[in-house]
């Protein structure tokens, strides 16, 4: 996730929606005092190759450490994160001054939930020698792997000012740059992070069985009603 003070926006990063590609694009306008949470090593290498700044200001100050946090620091050299990848909106709001939360443009991105579920399956089973059939996996996986609802809502209400759409991402990103008053247009990296793992390019209607489709409709009912109706 990102917090940009110069351009006054908060980017709430969802899962399996080209969120990392968007994050790398938005890093182009981030300043020294802004919050940038880490992404994977491979994606950080791509970001550096494009001349984008790396993670900064995402760790918690020492005075916010609990006893358990201090134990992790001593035994595992693990620093506590204040902001992190895919952090829900409610946590971000609780960590920020009201003037920042209320005054900054809140941005996120969403995707057709059926395509998103297929993408999630291939990503989460990518290291398995014999992955389960997609229908079996989607019928039994945690609901959090299918839904981004908690990331961009508080008390079941969508809090974003701008919801980008995966299916129209390049155009939506151009419009966002204009809305932010940027001098140069934002551009997605030519190499899409994590985009090579989906091996079945067919439309979701040809991939999902009836039971999988029904599970996705149940788990994602709120976003389907709010964003895809």
Description:
The structure is a single chain. It contains 11 helices and 7 strands. Helix 7 runs parallel beside helix 10 (210-219). It is of the alpha/beta class.
State the name of the first-level CATH class: Alpha Beta
Strand order of the largest sheet: 3-1-2-4-7
Tally of individual domains: 1
- Uncertain stretches: none
Number of strands: 7
Q: What is the fold named in CATH at topology level?
A: Rossmann fold
Describe the oligomeric state of these chains in a short phrase: single chain
Return the average pLDDT rounded to an integer. Answer: 92
- Can you summarize the main beta sheet? 5 strands, mixed
Distance between the termini: 27 Å
- Percent of residues in β-strands: 5-15%
- How would you classify the helix and strand content by structural class? alpha/beta
Order of helices and strands: EEHEHHHHEHHEEEHHHH
- Range of helix content: 40-55%
- From the coordinates shown, what is the CATH architecture? 3-Layer(aba) Sandwich
**Shape designation:** globular
Helix run count: 11
Q: What's the alpha carbon Rg, rounded to whole Å?
A: 18 Å
């Amino acid at each position: 996730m990102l917090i940009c003070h110069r351009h006054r926006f908060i980017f709430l990063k969802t899962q399996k929606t080209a969120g990392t590609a968007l994050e790398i694009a938005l890093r182009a306008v981030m300043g020294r005092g802004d919050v940038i949470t880490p992404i994977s090593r491979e994606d950080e290498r791509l970001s550096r190759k494009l001349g984008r700044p790396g993670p900064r200001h995402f760790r918690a100050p020492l005075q916010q450490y609990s006893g358990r946090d201090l134990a992790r620091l001593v035994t595992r050299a693990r620093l506590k994160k204040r902001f992190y990848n895919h952090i829900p909106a409610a946590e971000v709001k609780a960590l920020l001054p009201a003037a920042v939360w209320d005054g900054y443009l809140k941005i996120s991105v969403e995707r057709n939930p059926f395509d998103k579920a297929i993408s999630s399956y291939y990503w989460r089973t990518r290291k398995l020698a014999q992955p389960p059939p997609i229908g079996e996996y989607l019928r039994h996986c945690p609901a959090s792997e299918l839904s981004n609802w908690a990331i961009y809502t508080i008390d079941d209400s969508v809090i974003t000012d701008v919801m980008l759409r995966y299916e129209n991402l390049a155009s939506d990103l151009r419009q966002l740059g204009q809305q932010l008053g940027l001098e140069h247009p934002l551009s997605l990296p030519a190499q899409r992070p994590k985009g090579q793992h989906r091996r079945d390019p067919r439309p979701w209607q040809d991939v999902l069985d009836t039971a999988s489709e029904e599970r996705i409709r149940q788990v994602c009912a709120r976003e389907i009603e709010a964003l895809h109706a």
